[in-house]
Amino acid sequence: MRVLAIDLGTKNIGTAISDGLGMTVRPVETIRGASTGAAIERLKSLVDDLEAENVVVGVPLRMDGTIGDAARRALKFIDRLRERLNVPVVAQDERLTSYEAEQTMIERGLNAKQRRARSDEFAAMIILRDYLSSLKIEE
User: pLDDT at position 139, please?
Assistant: First the structure.
């Protein structure tokens, strides 16, 4: 099952895709500074172009698991995506993914400028990896 992951930021949206077997993940692109409507249209194009069968969106819950403003914004975005996409859209807890993405990029030797440019994509890859792992646990 090919899954598209979305890391929804305040300014940018990072995306990542899995292979058809759900074994590997790779970054796709960062959608920068687009309005919500334009971002949703771009995501719809990515779903079609990449033949995604499922979309997972990171929801930044608070550390205690409660829903704050950022999580509420993500859930509202998920509702809008569900109206526009013809594939299932699910939420995935994304606590600490930004920190993990930063650490991964440092380990790979990316400099500060490269990390800023790609942090959303790396966060989307971690959201996707965690989502795919949760599916394997349920099997």
Answer: 57
